[in-house]
């Protein structure tokens, strides 16, 4: 079984909403910060949202005010609620540990998941 599994992607019209889920089979309680990343065709993977163990969040300017990241340690999962979706949000979305908000003791997971594709189109 893959350690990181993303789900919830699909085709949605501009202005629509979608919620993504990410489950780490080994849990997230010991990870300081978990983040959502996305990679559009021909682009570098970028961090779009992150949440720390104590609930602090950070968002890329491009998604601020539209996306909300949350976590549920009991379910070993983080989530990304995506509202007011734009065509620019089209990408494959991944999750992994993040080291930007808290660098100390940060250990990204070596094996990325398959990601989940979000396509925003009319």
Helix and strand topology:
Layout: E1 4-7, E2 10-12, E3 18-24, E4 33-39, E5 46-52, E6 57-59, E7 67-72, E8 77-82, E9 91-97, E10 116-120
Parallel strand pairs: 2-10
Antiparallel strand pairs: 1-3, 3-8, 4-5, 4-9, 5-6, 7-8, 9-10
- How much strand content do the residues show? over 45%
Low-pLDDT ranges: none
Mind summarizing the main beta sheet? Answer: 6 strands, mixed
Secondary structure class reads: mainly beta
**Helix-strand pattern, N to C?**
EEEEEEEEEE
Distance between the termini: 35 Å
How many DSSP helices? Answer: 0
Shape: globular
Helical amount among residues, as a percent range?
A: under 10%
Question: What is the C-alpha radius of gyration, as a whole number of Å?
Answer: 13 Å
Strand order of the largest sheet: 2-10-9-4-5-6
Count all strands and give the number.
Answer: 10
Q: What is the residue-averaged pLDDT?
A: 96
Features:
single chain, 10 strands, globular, six-stranded mixed β-sheet, mainly beta
Give structural notes.
- With 122 residues, the protein is mainly β.
- 0% of the residues lie in helices and 45% in strands.
- The chain has no helices and 10 strands.
- It has strands at 4-7, 10-12, 18-24, 33-39, 46-52, 57-59, 67-72, 77-82, 91-97, 116-120.
- It has a 6-stranded mixed beta sheet, with no helix packed on it. A 4-stranded antiparallel beta sheet has the order 1-3-8-7, with no helix packed on it.
- A hairpin with a 4-residue loop joins strand 7 and strand 8.
Please summarize what this structure is.
The chain has 122 residues and is mainly β. It has strands at residues 4-7, 10-12, 18-24, 33-39, 46-52, 57-59, 67-72, 77-82, 91-97, 116-120.
